[in-house]
Amino acid sequence: MSPVALERVALKSLMLLPRPVLSRLAAGVETRGRDHLDPHMRFLLALSSAKPTLNSASVPEARKLYQDMIALMDVAEQSLPVVVDHQVPVEGDASILVRRYRPENAPRLAPAILFFHGGGFTVGGVEEYDRLCRYIAVHTNAVVLSVDYRLAPEHPSPTGANDGLAAWRWLLDNTAALGLDPDRLAVMGDSAGGNLSAVVSQQARLAGLPVPALQVLIYPTTDAELKHPSVQSLGQGFGLDLPLLTWFRSHFITDPAMMEDYRLSPLRNPDLADLPPAILVTATDPLRDEGLEYGDKLRRAGVDVTSLDYPQLVHGFITMGGVIPAARKAVDAICDATARQLKASRV
Fold this sequence. Notes:
- The protein is an alpha/beta fold.
- Helix content is about 40%, strand content about 20%.
- It has twelve helices and eight strands.
- Strands 1-2-4-3-5-6-7-8 form an eight-stranded mixed sheet, sandwiched between helices.
- β7, α11 (about 290-300) and β8 form a beta-alpha-beta unit.
- α6 packs across α8.
- This is Alpha/beta hydrolase fold domain-containing protein.
- Keywords: Hydrolase.
- One of its GO terms (molecular function) is hydrolase activity.
């Protein structure tokens, strides 16, 4: 058994302790009040304080740390009848991987979710999110297509956004061949992936392409400047700290003028009319305020927004469902809301 697998077994065993015990153990090492959080989450944060941070490592080391972290906490792998890798052409005479997951109970003409992983545009990928995407496919009965967009610093912004739009074009061009319902195509992502989901929705409209039927924005970053109040008030002690946010930004923004670009800061787009309905997911998170502001701005533009708020959880919870019961419950609720809206969008 690998060290990560052993650590996962040990962590899951610790998480079986009674909730009051976990709260007391967490309180014994916490340097700030977090008693509003789920006890399992508090205990996990207390344990993680002894681990190296991503921004203390080189980029290759950070990618390995992130991979191990997700492997430690994510849901168990589920078997699916169809898991296929596609190579999708992107700018620069290159291609990116898009992995397709088709669950057993998907209808013949299935809804689909184009999924963008998180990781500050710098870490993460299709492999790290493989178990989560399998889980989402099973729990929505939708085909999930996970996009391995290119990462910074090798490929700074707006490469990720451009790759995302290329993946959307490819999906539109291949719905019939893949057995997908063109009227029930969604975008979904967490953190940086939530940003890309919002950006693809905007850029598809600007390019004159069909827009998604739904955008699922899971604690998205919507403004690159890191100036919203929650960045300061929640930027320490809740997993995603301000130094890590700044480290990510130093890799994917090479030109400060990019902060104004809607492909990086979708919140700054003054015209959000005619965008798809949104499911907006928030938590106790430094990105909370910019996510909420984007939701409010969508509503003012006439876009239907469903809010799912999880103040007892923190940024990154979507890949913690294997060890945090409340995180698993939240992922299930996101899947249920997505499935309902995709079913309702059928024409």
